[in-house]
Amino acid sequence: MDIGARIERRRATTPVTNLVVEWNALSPVVHVPNPVGRGSTLERLLDALDPLFDDRLPPTIHLHGPPGAGKSALVSALFSQLSERLSPTHGTIQTTTRGSNEGNFNFVYIDARRSNTVFRLYRSILDALTEKHVPERGIGTGVLRRQLAATVAQSNPDVVVAVDHVDECETLASEEIVELFDGMSESLSVLTVGRERSSGERTLEIPAYSTHELADIVTERASQGLQQGVLEHAQVKTLAEWADGDAHDALAALFGAVTLAVKEDSNRINDRYLTAAMDAVPRNAVPLGIVLSLPEKRRSVLGKLLELDDCACASVETSAAAIAAETNLSVGTVTRYLYELAEAGVLERIAATDSKRSGRRPSKLEPRFPTLVFRALHDE
């Protein structure tokens, strides 16, 4: 906890509402530079990366753990710090126990949700390693691989790549990603991050947060993002217990409660807002990072779906017709998008209970993601 930094932030920051000092500090999709409650896991990860401090590439590593356990927050923050200290574009590190490091590594963090094909993965890494323009189309995957292999081989600093959110429905598998870098292992090391355990030799497991750790996270974020005293300790405890180890859900509910309070111009977050916000975060919710990484038209369809009244939401067909009427998309296209989003788990098809049709009942769609936060972020 940097007390001086907190004081200066309050001096320099003009509150955006009578509640909020900084929205980003509350957002479940924004990672802070120093994650809370992950000290022991950080030490184990640093142990696995220890060869870096002797100017050697570490082995391939897979970090895995349950949703909302802070995997992305930890790895993105760690790679930012390592890049600042061990890459050639920044300063050098010298210690009394090891030789000086003159910046022998390039660190690249990749979100597999946005680089969800082999082509995009190769391109993202190559784009991070070179100042030359890397085309987004009109070039084959094989050509990109050869360019990346040549760049890595000719690069004086070795390369350490973290590929986050692997093994999901729409992303590459961890084992496949490791195989994609065959032949580059002398100059490139890979850290994959996901929910599932890998069959690789070196794996690290990160546990779910305890209730106490979650309470610390909510308290820390609230202290950065909210005016003092608008969130009570009992409410923090309620959020932490409800979230059951998932920091994403806890922060999504906090963010949602704040949006409701701001909408009603309240100067406090009362229990009614908190309850409504928790109800807007489904159990085993699809992470907002997945939803926000969807193509723009699909995100737009989701936004329109959330605006429909109960009558328009009676079935997939009525929803598609109502959305098409508000956009420049055809009913057929919207219908296809809705079914694809349901197959991906972003929406859930459930049988309509109030249908008057005979025979098979139509299905309607329910969101499987935090709706209040999505609305706020999608409308930005």
Describe the structure.
This is ATP-binding protein. It is a single chain. 44% of the residues lie in helices and 11% in strands. It is an alpha/beta fold. The chain folds into 3 domains: 3-15 and 209-279, Helicase, Ruva Protein, domain 3 (Orthogonal Bundle), CATH 1.10.8; 39-205, P-loop containing nucleotide triphosphate hydrolases (Rossmann fold, 3-Layer(aba) Sandwich); 288-378, Arc Repressor Mutant, subunit A (Orthogonal Bundle), CATH 1.10.10. It has a 5-stranded parallel beta sheet, with helices on both faces. Strands 6-7 form a two-stranded antiparallel ribbon. The two termini are 30 Å apart.
How are the elements arranged and paired?
Blueprint: H1 3-12, H2 39-48, E1 61-64, H3 71-86, E2 105-111, H4 118-129, H5 141-154, E3 158-166, H6 174-180, E4 188-194, E5 203-205, H7 211-225, H8 233-243, H9 247-263, H10 271-279, H11 288-292, H12 296-307, H13 316-325, H14 331-343, E6 347-351, E7 363-367, H15 371-378
Parallel strand pairs: 1-4, 1-5, 2-3, 3-4
Antiparallel strand pairs: 6-7
Helix pairs in contact: 4-5, 7-8, 7-9, 8-9, 9-10, 9-15, 12-15, 13-14
In brief, what are we looking at here?
InterPro entries: AAA_16 (IPR041664), ORC1/CDC6 (IPR050311), P-loop_NTPase (IPR027417), WH-like_DNA-bd_sf (IPR036388), WH_DNA-bd_sf (IPR036390). The protein has helices at residues 3-12, 39-48, 71-86, 118-129, 141-154, 174-180, 211-225, 233-243, 247-263, 271-279, 288-292, 296-307, 316-325, 331-343, 371-378, and strands at residues 61-64, 105-111, 158-166, 188-194, 203-205, 347-351, 363-367.
